[in-house]
Amino acid sequence: MGLTLAQKIIKEHLVSGEMKAGSEISIRIDQTLTQDSTGTMAYLQFEAMGIPKVKTKKSVAYIDHNTIQAGFENADDHKYIQTVTSRHGIYFSRPGNGICHQVHLERFGVPGMTLLGSDSHTPTGGGIGMLAIGAGGLDVAVAMGGGAYFLSMPKIVRVNLTGKLTSWVSAKDVILEVLRILSVKGGVGKIIEYAGEGVATLSVPERATITNMGAELGATTSVFPSDEVTRAFLRAQGREEDFMPLCADSDAVYDEEITVDLSSLTSLTAMPHSPDNVKKVSELGGLPVDQVFIGSCTNSSYTDMMKTAAILKGKSVHPNVSLVIGPGSKQVLHMLAENGALADMIDAGARILECACGPCIGMGQAPKTGAVSLRTNNRNFEGRSGTKSAQVYIVSPETAALSAITGTLTDPSLLGDRLEIEMPEHFYNNDNMVVAPAPEGQEPEVVRGPNIKEFPINKPMGNTVEGKVLIRVEDNITTDHIMPSNASLLPFRSNIPHLSSYCLTPCDPEFPARAKANGGGIIVGGSNYGQGSSREHAALVPLYLGVRAVIAKSFARIHMANLINSGILPLTFAKESDYDNVGLEDMLAIENAPAQLAQGEEITVKNITRGTEFKTTLSLSPRQKDILLAGGLLNYTKNNA
């Protein structure tokens, strides 16, 4: 029996475990990336390990999230990241060089390598045949120190692509169709592997758009074969020596398979407030539009920008629409400026943003009250744009650009014949905004500003884990709900005490005060708790507030791992109906917690207030149990160094 592409890469990097779906494995990590929203904490954790130099083949720190410098906080964090990376052997991508996933795809990604990133959209690297996985910052710190990355062996889902995209239908429509079929929970515990005749018709940037938004499926990662299309992209980047052909064996066996006929797709949109709330654009024609954003790590490539410029050329943005465009990297922006496409955008009335995440994470360009905002980014969670009342629709660059002109949501098929944008034979390359680490033997001083505070470290698990229920939340609570990430809070990503006053406030403004008044407690959640971003602040801030356990119907993969890494018990209701029998401020207790953890998967929780008890499950490897007993991954790592 042959191997899938993902299985081949895992086998090549396997450190421990058996490649059997659901069992714990560990893999060697070749490359890591961080960004400044999660990076400060990751490097504080790396420093705490006491390892002098990273042991990966390449590690890169990007500044792309917190680029608005309205105060000293962001600039201080940037200086800390630049100096700590220089000291420890990590490359530093300066502000303005671009969004981490776009730049890494262009300049550093290598087919067949493993990439671990402290950002949930790290799977973008799967567009060139990497096994690229998003994780919490502490997992990335351990990997930088030479430690293996542990995960449950995922199931492998084959997405069979047939046919070819028709005029004005794009890669964004492909991944929206997959989201429509599988939902935001459909990829949990799975790797999405693309195959079939349709693969060869998609460019690397198109593949990267699809793997990027695979994160919205809850998937461990997504991956495309590395083929002649990949070789041509790397050759154009001046990196053909990094090419390696990779594909699944012809007799590979998959756990699941779906088929997407590219030729039958039409332009799609994800309606508010979920990436899987998908409808045809044609069904919503005439919807008035207030704002359009084209960019983000999903759709900011050279080809995306060139399509946008071609649609805008000679036209004017509708007077009721604010159009903002953010190229993904300095490389892209330079090429647009050089060939005149940037002038076409500006002439049409677009506002050009710096090469950064920007509006996608609510960092500027928040829509007006009740606005309809069309965006090419990957998430449209309520309030993520910076305006809670805004209605954010996820669309392709083609749909976005045309709608900016018409003033209403418009199907780009009305434009007629296909727009052909050729991939350049040579991309402009100037890596002068990537700073190499200090030479061997030099140890630069690490500069820490006053906004950088110590991060919380848990204590070993006590015999009884108990506390009041501090909050009850519904299904699909995101890390944006748990730890908001708007423009006013992002500058405090290295200040956990400050952030603690905002934890879960989108769900209940009284949560922080209640948690502090009770000395911590327990969170009760619905299904898919913690979906979205990989930010470990969604675990570190509850830890700071004294949260000892989260009991939910189900968890998103990365958030569950971050809870374990923080020493917080992530328990799943054995019967979902028990969720209804737990009330706010009920006192819960897990007696003999270490013994229960050691005995098996079933954990009994007593509801002291109601005089009842219920069963929960916690399916963990022996290593994960030891991490919880130690009070988190940092304690465990130190104990086993």
Kindly summarize this structure in a few lines:
By secondary structure, the chain is of the alpha/beta class. Helices cover 28% and strands 19% of the residues.
Q: Shape, please?
A: globular
State the helicity in percent bands.
25-40%
Strand order of the largest sheet: 21-22-23-24-27-26-25
How large is the count of helical segments? Answer: 20
Low-confidence stretches: none
Distance between the termini: 39 Å
Structural class: alpha/beta
Q: Beta fraction of the residues?
A: 15-25%
Radius of gyration: 24 Å
Largest sheet: 7 strands, mixed, barrel
Mean pLDDT: 95
For the secondary structure, the number of strands is 27
Description:
There is one protein chain. Helix content is 28%, strand content 19%. The chain is built from 20 helices and 27 strands. Helix 3 (72-88) links the parallel strand 4 (58-62) and strand 5. The model has no long low-confidence stretch (mean pLDDT 95).
Key descriptive features of the protein:
641 residues; alpha/beta; 7-stranded mixed β-barrel; 6-stranded mixed beta sheet
Explain the layout of strands and helices.
Blueprint: H1 5-13, E1 14-16, E2 24-27, E3 31-35, H2 36-49, E4 58-62, H3 72-88, E5 91-93, H4 100-107, E6 114-117, E7 131-134, H5 137-144, E8 149-152, E9 155-162, H6 171-182, E10 190-195, H7 204-212, E11 221-223, H8 228-236, E12 256-261, E13 268-270, E14 278-280, E15 291-294, H9 302-312, E16 322-325, H10 330-339, H11 341-348, E17 351-352, E18 372-375, E19 391-394, H12 397-406, E20 434-435, E21 465-472, H13 479-482, H14 496-499, H15 511-517, E22 521-525, H16 537-544, E23 547-552, H17 557-565, E24 569-573, E25 587-590, H18 593-599, E26 602-607, E27 612-617, H19 622-630, H20 633-639
Parallel strand pairs: 3-4, 3-6, 4-5, 6-7, 9-10, 9-12, 10-11, 15-16, 15-18, 16-17, 18-19, 21-22, 22-23, 23-24
Antiparallel strand pairs: 1-2, 2-8, 5-20, 13-14, 21-25, 24-27, 25-26, 26-27
